Amino acid sequence: xxxxxxxxxxxxxxxxxxxxxxxxxxxxxxGYDGASIRDIAARASIDPAMVIRYFHSKDELFARxxxxxxxxxxxxxxxxxxxxxxxxxxxxxxxxxxxTATGMVILLRSAASNxxxxxxxxxxxANQVRPVVAAFGDPADAGRRAGLVASQLLGLATCRYLxxxxxxxxxxxxxxxxxxxxxxxxxxxxxxxx
Amino acid sequence: xxxxxxxxxxxxxxxxxxxxxxxxxxxxxxGYDGASIRDIAARASIDPAMVIRYFHSKDELFARxxxxxxxxxxxxxxxxxxxxxxxxxxxxxxxxxxxTATGMVILLRSAASNxxxxxxxxxxxANQVRPVVAAFGDPADAGRRAGLVASQLLGLATCRYLxxxxxxxxxxxxxxxxxxxxxxxxxxxxxxxx
DNA sequence: TGAATTTGTCAACAGTCGTTGATATTCGGA
DNA sequence: TCCGAATATCAACGACTGTTGACAAATTCA
Lengths: 194, 194
Description:
The structure is a homodimer. The first copy, chain A, is mostly helical. Chain A folds into 2 domains: 12-65, Homeodomain-like (Arc Repressor Mutant, subunit A, Orthogonal Bundle), CATH 1.10.10.60; 80-189, Orthogonal Bundle (Tetracycline Repressor, domain 2), CATH 1.10.357. Chain A has 10 helices and no strands. Chain A starts with 12 loop residues before the first helix and ends in a 5-residue tail after the last helix. The model of chain A is unreliable at 1-9 (pLDDT under 50). Chains A and B meet through helix 1, helix 6, helix 7, helix 8 and helix 9 of A and helix 1, helix 6, helix 7, helix 8 and helix 9 of B.
């Protein structure tokens, strides 16, 4: 009676959550190929067959593990002068805050050798980065500017979360904001040479 | 008598080269895990056992395939005002010129899920990017500045060669130089906020 | 020519992978 | 309490992996 779901209190809906958590952890560490269903099951202290029972295949499990909300309306920039600052702050909030971050790292780590993940990453930056950038400057030019912004953001993520390049890992959030913010500002608004 | 090697004219040294070529192509497309020895052998029209015969394991084959010279003394920047320009031009010459480029793409694509490749990438940017950056500005600060430069360069490479993000692929070399050059200049010299 | 060495072919090994079905265990409701 | 349904276990499948050794063909050198 203390259930929150209307129909299914479902005792071992908990198992499903355990599997998903284990899957996220291993996908983050080793990517799609590197994390086997048996490894995930072992980490969840459960039989490999249960993984298939609940999620129907490894692909579906991966899709669920890489799923995240990524609410976009948070970046509502009012003045053009601070758009670079707003983008990098939002980036940090997303990537360094827990829930969504793991989904992004999963995608990025698997994107290099998994076409589904790669397409998902392209989607994210086409539907999230581009609209924000498009709101400022020449709309016909938005694609190129968003591409440059994406290159810097993805590079930062790659160095900091995947490769763990020491000097990039050592950067504080404030340092990132102060250094990368103006660059994104330049890219997003099309300042400098064309 | 027309041999160039002193001792081994070695008729099927050619086979070894064929295997290496096939390996490079498949490693570039699918990364370390995605390219199997059987696939590589099939592409080289040869028996899988020969791959092991000539290179002793898949790891050694990968190491050989990802090997490239990357002659560093080319970037001798004379004046500080053009270091950003020099870095991005050198980057483009390396990545868009054939022989070394494939090695870099192989490394980058596999780095996300292969620790050997990841370490190699860290090495490249620690030994190639950092010294160039360190020559200008505060030496104590060189690590951070080189890290920022690396984040932009690796992001550009990821978007252009791995993810193939359409707007980034569409950029001409001149556009890249004009847009990214000043950013690298800013990062490398430590201009702007600290 | 014949012998020796290189080069290539074939089948199989032990292991891992995702996935499946039959079977056992546990649990909620009568 | 007992029964049916949900939940979990187990063994095995076919396919794939890197790697190995025994054997055949080709080439080289005398």
